[in-house]
Amino acid sequence: MAKQIYQRLHECDECGSRRFVTFLELTRAAKPKCHYCGCSRLELVCEEAKADRARLQSDRLDRLALIRKRER
């Protein structure tokens, strides 16, 4: 029976590039790094994460608009 290697799409927090990271890479002591900038902060990309990020960004923009409105 062949060993299955799972790959999931991860995105670099610094440069935004994406690459597939295997489960074996994730379980090693050394964290996987971005191939472009060398940053070790990679975030899993999935539909729920995209929706959460979009919601958080929207909340941030709403708060900024409210703060600017108060300053006027």
Question: How would you portray this structure in words?
Answer:
The protein is of the alpha+beta class and 72 residues long. It has one domain (7-71). It contains two helices and three strands, in the order E-E-H-E-H. A three-stranded antiparallel beta sheet has the order 2-1-3. A hairpin with a 5-residue loop joins strand 1 (7-12) and strand 2 (18-22). It is elongated.
- Record the strand order, biggest sheet: 2-1-3
Count of runs of 4 or more consecutive helical residues? 2
Q: Characterize the main sheet.
A: 3 strands, antiparallel
Radius of gyration: 18 Å
Helix content estimate: 40-55%
Mean pLDDT over the full residue set: 80
Strand element count: 3
Q: How many domain units?
A: 1
Q: What fraction of the residues are assigned to beta strands by DSSP?
A: 15-25%
How do the SSEs run, as a string of H and E? EEHEH
Overall geometric form: elongated
Query: Structural class given helices, strands, pairing?
Result: alpha+beta
Low-confidence segments:
none
Distance between the termini: 68 Å
Give a topology summary.
Layout: E1 7-12, E2 18-22, H1 23-27, E3 42-44, H2 47-71
Antiparallel strand pairs: 1-2, 1-3
In short:
The chain is an alpha+beta fold and 72 residues long. The chain contains 2 helices and 3 strands; from the N terminus they run E-E-H-E-H.
